[in-house]
Amino acid sequence: MKKLADSISYIFHPMFMLTYLITYFLFTDNYFAFFMSPVKKLFLLSAVMVFSVILPLLNMVLLKKMGYIDRKSVV
């Protein structure tokens, strides 16, 4: 049961919500994505993922390596 709770916690982490929202808007039939080519959609999705997921995680790792945060404050 703990594994299920942990996996749900990771899936619905607030860091991923913007990526889920953009994915929903880009790949459903709506006005927002109607005029965009598939290449532009993937570029926008990758940019959102870089700025909302990868860079914050990289920042956290760097701060942990430099000793500004410890394990207790990360969790």
Provide a descriptive summary of the structure in words.
With 75 residues, this protein is mainly α. It has one domain (2-74). It has 5 helices and no strands. The longest helix has 29 residues, at 38-66. 0% of the residues are buried.
Brief rundown of the structure:
The protein is mainly α. The chain has one domain (2-74). The chain contains 5 helices and no strands.
Q: Main beta sheet: strand number and arrangement?
A: none
Arithmetic mean of pLDDT: 89
The domain count comes to 1
Overall 3D form: flat
Index terms:
80% helix; 75 residues; mainly alpha
Give a topology summary.
Elements: H1 2-11, H2 14-26, H3 31-34, H4 38-66, H5 71-74
Helix pairs in contact: 2-4
